[in-house]
Amino acid sequence: MLSVWPKLGAGVTVALLAIASFSTPAAPVQIDLRAPTGFTAVSIDPVRNDQFCITGDLTSDDGESRTAWVTLVDVVPKQVAWAQRLPAPGQYIGNSAVRCATDGHSYFVLTQAYTHWESTLNQTKVFINQLSPKGELGISTLVSAGFDEWATALNVSPEAISVIGGANSALDSQGRFSMYVQQFDAKLKLTHSMTIPHGAFAPNSEASLQQESLRIAGEFLPDTVANAAGRQAFAFSDVDLRTGRYSWSTYVSPAKTKSEKSFFASDGSDLYVGLTPDDMTVAVVNANGEVAQTFSTAKPVCEVKAIGSSGDTLYLLGAACNQEATGELISIDLKHRTTKVVRELPGYLLVARFTDSGWAAVVKQKGGMLSLMHDSF
After folding, report:
1. pTM to 2 decimals?
2. 140: which of 53, 116, 129, 321 fits an S-S bond (Cβ 3.0–4.6 Å)?
């Protein structure tokens, strides 16, 4: 369904925020999340200055069910502001919280509810939930974008609350893939809806809304029908939201890539890091979708969790190639094509994200304690 597209605020970004400047490195802030047993982190989102919203789910003791869980952490007072369970509606067997944002007053959380644990039978539906400043659940509504849905990104601006994601027309991804952008007002009433056919992007992709265009990066999922456009690989794409058509798509993923992430820079370029069993590939795609730079070097980590940038320096948070897979912060000089370990972290990074002032991550330490770790550069 195609509708007239309202203009959004310029430069509204739903993924990573470009890092403008960095101060001298300081000791990372570390805050115990006091997460219940069985918590699995799915995403971490900066929602206000010095506030991070962490989403995920709680697995029951018997492993038979999952319940969405979200927590808000204040970095300056170094404390958990609130935590909330968001149970799935009665007709679903469980759910997960996947993204979080705020309008400056309320918080909005995307959850994915499941009908079955078996992938061949499961139909996933996306809900958008409004929470009070204290984390109390208010309104909850279906996104209603397709038959089998998933959410990729959530953007809250004065103009609209926008949900970006993908869908398939049949169970077990056996139908036609499509992307969607659903817009809601402050009362979670659907105001605009757009479906973009001919493929979708995987749930862990990143997306950015910029006026009348959608920039998205991740593993592209082409239709399984004959003569389907595109191929299954990591790609950057730009979609014209006035027409619902792709302006361009660029593939950057080398063969045998095991771990990869993207970043939307403030100058309009897109950055990519991918790890193969042997090396690390870095790529820069300009605003026109052209590969402006690409090179490979020895990989400094064995898993990449998030990337960010400042000028000619790209920053990477990932897991070291040691038995403990401890976290590391790596700097990559794009001009000289060199890498350097900036900081070693005391645990495994579950999720991570760069902000306009540094980075934040959920770290699992020895003994199983989960903590939010935040640092500036």
Report:
1. 0.90
2. 129
